[in-house]
Amino acid sequence: MMKPRDRVINSIERSPIDRVPLDGWFRPETMIRLREYFKTDRSEEVLRALGIDIRDIRMDPPESFKPEYILPAQRLSKDFESFYATMFDEWGIKREAGSTDEYWHFTYHPLEHVELDDYAFPDIDAPGRFERARELAKQYSGEFLVAGNATLGLFEEAWALRGYRTFIK
């Protein structure tokens, strides 16, 4: 049996593989149910049980950034720990949880309120941004293919900053 990393690389290079490589990302409520099904409290064990060949890593907000959460007293879901919330991220984008408490909606777009030349972009080199990514890359790179993952792509981040309607004009 091939190592997951070799399977993915061989697939990209069109070399022989023992099976199709798998990647997977699961919403939190789905991962909770998968951990219950596989009788584990570790997401890594779920990924291994499912034969996922790729491990995603991403940058974090810097150590100095503390997100602003506004949490109402009511808890909406009894199946998993989750609260209806409003959050401002390090970009100044406001996100609010939807009525099901599963998806975020962008409700404040900083570049609708300030000119681009006056906007202070987050510091990419701020301490704490890549420490966890480095640790995970070191941990997984021998066995798995490690891939960078951005929760939002360039398009989504741009319209979250500007507002969708403003962005597509």
Structure, described:
The chain has helices at residues 4-12, 28-37, 43-50, 131-140, 154-162, 164-168, and strands at residues 54-57, 68-70, 86-88, 94-97, 104-108, 145-148. By secondary structure, the chain is an alpha+beta fold. The protein has one domain (4-168). A hairpin with a 5-residue loop joins β3 (86-88) and β4 (94-97). The chain is globular and about 55 Å long.
How do the helices and strands follow one another from N- to C-terminus?
HHHEEEEEHEHH
Q: Count every beta strand, where a strand is a DSSP E run of 2 or more residues.
A: 6
Distance between the termini: 52 Å
Helix content: 25-40%
Total domain units: 1
Q: Which class of secondary structure composition applies to the elements?
A: alpha+beta
Mean pLDDT: 87
Task: Report the β-strand fraction as a percent range.
Answer: 5-15%
Strand order of the largest sheet: 2-3-4-5
Low-confidence stretches: 73-83
Name the overall outline.
Answer: globular
Rounded to an integer in angstroms, the radius of gyration calculated over CA atoms is 19 Å
Counting DSSP H or I runs of 4 or more residues, the number of helices is 6
> Sheet with the most strands?
4 strands, antiparallel
